[in-house]
Design a protein that fits this description.
about 350 residues; alpha/beta; Metallo-beta-lactamase, Chain A; seven-stranded mixed sheet; 9 helices; Rossmann fold; about 25% helix; 2 domains
Length: about 350
């Protein structure tokens, strides 16, 4: 594209509230309440309540309503993936991010330039959401959650094979699977089903509402039930999904001698597994790993990479050694979910 066009950072830049598109008059994933926000997905470090108006996919809007209440924003505008609209002269569309149900990249076109704000994303197969779409652009804003060469995620189906093998070896012990309550929990259930497991899967109370929402939005998760106190006394050899924090609290002790599993990209680090008392680490992530990250920032063909949400400095340094212009946005308000 012609160099006579103004640079992207003259109209898209970090502000006190978050990443701001000046000509459009809106923010992307702002960390505090604003008049107009575009939300990439429903995780709480990207989707907050209290905005005047929110544009997002239908699924993300429904997730926000479940998490924050029906009136968590002044107004909602759903936008279908791939549909282009114009806001104050800025072209806006949402492209699939492959992170969780409803997750999207925000594609902005203005003054002859295209910027893509990817939010969180992954390239791996996930039967609960639309696959990532590669969008060529001038500026690509990427996460850097697992931006170190040590991080190589396993295929989810492979880790579920480990889980089922453990269940066969320990038929009298329930398996408690710690998984983030939005996205990871539902993905694990679906992959377990795809592996042929048809028995009821039990749910900690904290994961029920979002799991039921996934079902209402068309994701088939099979027979899922609340894990009641009565179930805990009699359940053996079954699967219970729970938040990672529940693995070590009083709730988990009601199951006697369970096998504690944790589905997370961080389980690649043995010290993390030991720290959480995890007997069965499952290396399953809803983010890109190092090879996928490098492939993505190369394939989009952007003139510049903006890095946020994770190991920003490490990725910027690596890209510089490859002759790729990059900089850290250092956005505030980004906390990693218990991935």
């Amino acid at each position: 594209m012609s160099s006579t066009f103004p640079p992207v950072d003259s109209w898209l830049y970090p502000s006190e509230a978050g990443l701001f598109c000046e000509p459009g008059g809106f923010y992307i994933d702002p960390h505090r309440s604003v008049d107009r926000a575009i939300i990439t997905h429903g995780h709480s470090d990207h989707a907050r309540s209290g905005h005047g108006a929110v544009l997002a996919t239908h699924e993300t809007i429904e997730i926000m309503k479940v998490r924050y209440g029906e009136n968590c924003a002044g107004a909602f505008q759903p936008l279908k993936l791939g549909e282009m609209i114009t806001i104050n002269g800025v072209g806006v569309r949402l492209a699939p991010a492959g992170h969780i149900l409803g997750s999207a990249q925000v594609v902005l076109e203005w003054a002859g330039k295209r910027a893509v704000i990817s939010g969180d994303y992954k390239r791996a197969t996930d039967p609960t959401c639309t696959p990532f779409e590669l969008v060529p652009c001038d500026v690509f804003v990427t996460e850097a959650t697992f931006a170190l060469p040590v991080f190589r995620h396993e295929k989810a189906a492979h880790e579920v094979e480990k889980l089922l093998g453990s269940m066969a070896a320990e038929p009298d012990r329930p398996h408690l699977i710690g998984a983030y309550n939005l996205g990871k929990c539902q993905r694990m259930i679906r992959v377990i089903r795809d592996a042929g497991y048809s028995e009821p899967i039990y749910l900690h109370g904290a994961v029920i509402a979002l799991t039921e929402l996934y079902k209402r939005l068309g994701v088939d998760l099979g027979d899922v039930r609340p894990a009641t106190t009565e179930d805990a006394k009699s359940l053996s050899g079954g699967i219970v999904m729970c938040p990672p924090s529940a693995l070590g609290d009083r709730w988990s002790r009601r199951f006697g001698d369970p096998v504690n599993a944790f589905a997370s990209g961080w389980m690649r680090v043995r010290g993390r597994a030991r720290q959480h008392g995890v007997e069965l680490p499952l290396v399953v992530s809803d983010h890109v790993d190092w090879p996928e990250l490098i492939a993505t920032v190369t394939d989009v063909g952007a003139e510049e990479i903006w890095v946020t949400h994770g190991r920003e400095d490490a990725l910027v340094h690596y890209l510089a050694t490859r002759g790729i212009k990059a900089r850290a946005l250092a956005l505030v308000g980004r906390e990693e979910e218990a991935e």
